[in-house]
Amino acid sequence: MRVLAAMSGGVDSAVAAARAVDAGHEVVGVHMALNRNPGTLRTGSRGCCTIEDSLDARRAADLLGIPFYVWDLSESFLEEVVEDFVAEYAAGRTPNPCVRCNERIKFAALLDKGIALGFDAVCTGHYARVEHRPDGTAELHRAADALKDQSYVLAVLDADQVAHAMFPLGDAPTKAQVRAEAERRGLPVANKPDSHDICFIPDGDTRGFLADKLGEDPGLVLDEAGAVVGRHTGTYGFTVGQRKGLGLDRPAADGRPRYVLSIEPVRRTVTVGPAERLSVQALTAVDPVWSSPVPVGPVEVAAQVRAHGDPVPAVAEMRDGEVRVRLRTPLTGVAPGQTVALYSATRVLGSATISATTPVDTPVGTLAAD
Amino acid sequence: MTAGPSAYLDHASTTPARPEAVAAFVAEASLAGNPSSLHSSGRRARAVVEEAREALAAAVGARPAEVVWTSGGTEADNLAVKGVYWARRAQDPRRTKVLLSAVEHHAVLDCVDWLVAHEGARAVLLPVDAVGRTDLDALQRELGTGEDVALVALMWANNEVGTVQPVAEAAALAHAVGVPLHTDAVQAVGHVPVDFAACGADTLALSAHKFGGPVGAGALLVRRGTPLTPLQHGGGQELGVRSGTLDAAAAAATAAALTAAVGDLAAETTRLQQLRDRLLDGLLTAVPGVSLRGDQRRDPRHRLPGNVHVTVTGTQGDSLLYLLDAAGVECSTGSACQAGVPQPSHVLLAMGLPEEEAAGALRFSLGWNSTAADVDAALAAIAPAVERSRRAATSTRTARRRRAARTPGPVAS
Q: For the complex shown, is ipTM > 0.90?
């Protein structure tokens, strides 16, 4: 196959490209330039899109003996990921930009361009597995290393995108083994630290980044009874489940910590309450994407709402184009905007964007999932 | 990804060293002797440098004393632009205006930007017409009485579209009001006749690796009496204008390359023009939507003989580069890169092209060892590459529209 290896400059994508070469594919390395004004380590950037990262990717490609190019996808990235991120926070939701990037950049803008240019697949360093069935379909599965499994951020891919994806690290037993393999191959990125930050917020200050984009938009922090317990400078600074940095005037009457329960950007209010009110028994999610056949009627699934959260048993059902998910074990800190990924054992069935949640003590009959 | 050697059609970026240059470099590089040393090895090395200086000067119509060796074209441009600016402003503090063509190379543009940011300069970009030729009426207007102008910068020939600029006319206009002119002749020297004495420019930058000399070598020609403040200080070489140990091997190789290039310039120009016409006419007939950019007159008085710069409607330069590279054809988008990403060309934008058309730019540049086989390889590869690149551009736009429709609505609350 002709394979386009997306090379970030990190160790995972370098080893993934190396494994694709070993497997006998015709591999071309591409570093995606996602930022019009990339930072450098000298300017203190901690993100994963510095010019040094592009040079690291180039050196890895040199070592593998594959052609290497830098493709400018900054315009798509700005429109599809950065502006989406800001708009989602402004709307009181909690987006996952890595999910968006996979959905709309790596396996959309990059994949579409690659296919048009004659490639068959995009290869990345994600920890997940694609299983090709004899009938030509492809299934997305969790990685062998449960600790590194990244199938959650890929659950947004549809069947066609999965069919054109290649994840050579899906069978790697551990991340440490991947680093050892990089060392053995002489890849200079073997000991490069993992990137954790949002790549387009190089200083890690998400709140400051949003404040720059959205400006101050002050409002009230309320308790569940509607009493004013504090003030804020913008609802976008909050996430459901957040405990720190609430800036409350005084402690709760019972002295227990309070958490963000909900965000209403139109009224510019943030509602806080005790931990048990964060428990969610059902959720509704919109814009579903299925890499498996669309389920008919209720199906038993495992639902996961965070990249590194434990999945819980649940019943999912498609209704009016939305997914209703009834959780058999309650989850806490579930925010609108997050992705819910649905699994059957290790297989990713699909995912959708959470639009509403139902707290545990809500009387039956008003469940979001009903 | 390709069988056999690539067709190298990117000589304007760098051209391989000529055999004469390699021989001269190798002969000198292993010998002892700093040209500034007083012993016999030093004197021998000095003689090599001075012989090279004389040969270089003879090849470009300059006097040996007008040659200042530099580390290349970029340093020569920096020395001229900053050095003349500082010296002229020191003579008269009103002289802070720098007039420069909108299509200058970054080695000039960015120098002026720096002077604006740090040294109180005022930059005036002179417009160009649709073929990239600088507007002399605008120059005359902006010169005024010349009392507040530090210098004019006008390249000899544009590195992207190959348009030859009216340097002599511009120099005459500048001199009429007592203003010096710098010309970046990096793309011209060794490719079209360059006569420093006749052209009227006060400083001229050249780069060895563009005409078959070594990378990291070049010179600034400085007309006698031109005020120039040095950029680098140290051992006082080159009459104190450019400190740094003289590189005898590089000087010898530079002179050898230029002597060879100028020696058969007429015959080589004819040969290159034939290759160029074969390539250009082939492109224009093989692919719909190809437009020649720069001066449409193919005479070397108007257009560099080895330059073919085209835009291809509906394509992206980076896709075309990849597809041609994969097919064994090496060329360029012609414009500057940031971390390997082609940026929209300031030259094409200054010529009035819309950004979308400027995105599909390709520069093929022929050189001293180009062959008909190189041209034929490019012609064989171009049509399928353009077709694929157009499909890639369309697929990206379609995908964006499709996914935009999936964006979720506001939170229900």
A: no
Catalytic choice (A48, A49, A98, A199): A199
Residues in chain B: 413
Q: A142 in helix, strand or coil?
A: strand
pLDDT at B91 exceeding the cut of 50: yes
The CA-based dihedral angle spanning residues A74, A79, A82, A87, taken in that order and rounded to the nearest 10 degrees: 170
Residue that has been written with the tokens 């005409």 in this structure = B211
Q: What is the pTM of this model?
A: 0.87
**Do the Cβ atoms of A113 and B395 come closer than 8 Å?**
yes
pLDDT at A191: 84
Contact present, B12 and B307 (Cβ < 8 Å): yes
Chain B residues in contact with A336 (beta carbon < 8 A): 411
For residues A259 and A333, give the distance between their C-alpha atoms in angstroms, rounded to a whole number. Answer: 9
Candidates B204, B215, B196, B191; CA nearest to B154 is: B204
Sort residue B388 into left (φ over 0), alpha (ψ -120 to 50) or beta.
alpha
Q: Say if the Cβ atoms of A69 and B322 lie within 8 Å.
A: yes
How far apart are alpha carbons B309 and B291 in whole angstroms? 8
Q: Would you call A91 and B411 a contact, using CB atoms and an 8 Å cutoff?
A: yes
Q: How many CB atoms within 10 Å of residue B281?
A: 11
Position A21 pLDDT exceeds 60 = yes
> How far apart (Å, rounded) are the C-alpha atoms in residues B256 and B253?
5
Each residue's pLDDT tens digit, A254-281: 888 999 999 999 999 999 999 888 999 9
Beta carbons within 8 Å of A150's beta carbon, 6+ residues apart: A126, A127, A128, A143, A307
Compute the distance between CA of residue A214 and CA of residue B385 in angstroms, rounded to an integer: 43
Measured CA to CA, the distance from residue A202 to residue A192 in angstroms comes to 17
Q: Which residues pair with B62 in a beta bridge?
A: none
User: From the CA of A72, how many Å to the nearest CA of chain B?
Assistant: 6
Residue identified by tokens 């020191």 is B90
- When CB atoms are compared, the residue of A33, A113, A284 closest to B339 is A33
pLDDT in tens, A58-96: 999 999 999 999 988 888 899 999 999 999 999 989 899
